[in-house]
Amino acid sequence: MVVDKQSDEVVDRVFQALADATRRDILARAAVDELSVTALAAGYAMSFAAVQKHVAVLVRAGLVTKRRRGREQLVRTDLRQLEKARALLEQYESLWRHRAAGMERLLAEG
User: Fold this and answer.
1) Nearest of 84, 66, 73 to residue 18 by alpha carbon
2) 45-101: per-residue pLDDT in tens?
């Protein structure tokens, strides 16, 4: 499996964005359908400006794209960046599984 090597700064932005439940919910909602920021904001008990800030964090992380249609700002989840995050986590999982297997072998040799 070939995974794009991303800078530490990009990886930090992605996982910082994913650390917040509201942003994960926005990602899920915008993955199903392109939604305006206004429509997204209607689903939360927070101000429109607060939702805009969450969307801005997701845009900076490359997890969503935003485009204008008239007066609306439409948000859509970019599945490519989520796939990169998943692949990175799989690399860490593989590394730790390899290390755990090595420890088991050492313990079995006793």
Assistant:
1) 84
2) 999 999 999 999 999 999 999 999 999 999 999 999 999 989 989 999 999 999 999
Strands 35-36 and 72-77, bridge-based pairing? antiparallel
What is the spatial distance between Cα 56 and Cα 50, in angstroms, rounded to a whole number?
10
Q: Are residues 14 and 62 in contact, defined by beta-carbon separation less than 8 angstroms?
A: yes
Query: Which candidate, 44, 38, 52, places its Cα nearest to that of 22?
Result: 44
44-75 burial by CB neighbour count: b if 16+ within 10 A, else e? eeeeeeebbebbebbeebbbbebeeeeeebbb
